[in-house]
Amino acid sequence: MNSRSEAGSRLTALGTQLLEVHIWLREMLEDLRDGIDDYFDGRGLPPRDLRAHCLSFCTALTRHHTGEDRGAFPLIAEEFPELRKVLSDLRTDHNQLDWLLGNLQKLLDSLPEEPDPATAAKVREEVDALSAIMQTHFIYEEKKLISVLNSMDVPEWRENRPAFLLIDDED
């Protein structure tokens, strides 16, 4: 393989890695939703296990977005100033998602040992809102930033994968 194709593969990998992280986060949220549904249907995990699952998902999503806000977005804004509005919109989404994550965590922290319909409706509504915003956010981000990431050469990202591109299996 010549050095030009090696460089192309390496650069393309950044965009591919972002897609992989988004797929992984979508799967984590779907697993959490399934666990919540099972709990409210009376056949699932106890509340403490759902809280742990939620904490794992929330931590991963927060790490991803914090890594973008602090690491990737400033570099992208510097190299592609025309994307500053897009990056600002994505940061706004991050704040909204943080708020929704906090609401979901509070609801799961107060889950009764025995499921009840009133709590089920609130929790499912919060998960649906989180899912809708997250999906829309990821699609917008993928459309706007995959090609940008593929064109960037950030030497320190070659050495150490940045937080926004980490999947827990790789930590």
Automatic annotation (TrEMBL):
<feature type="domain" description="Hemerythrin-like">
    <location>
        <begin position="18"/>
        <end position="147"/>
    </location>
</feature>
<protein>
    <recommendedName>
        <fullName>Hemerythrin-like domain-containing protein</fullName>
    </recommendedName>
</protein>
<dbReference type="InterPro" id="IPR053206">
    <property type="entry name" value="Dimeric_xanthone_biosynth"/>
</dbReference>
<dbReference type="Pfam" id="PF01814">
    <property type="entry name" value="Hemerythrin"/>
</dbReference>
<dbReference type="InterPro" id="IPR012312">
    <property type="entry name" value="Hemerythrin-like"/>
</dbReference>
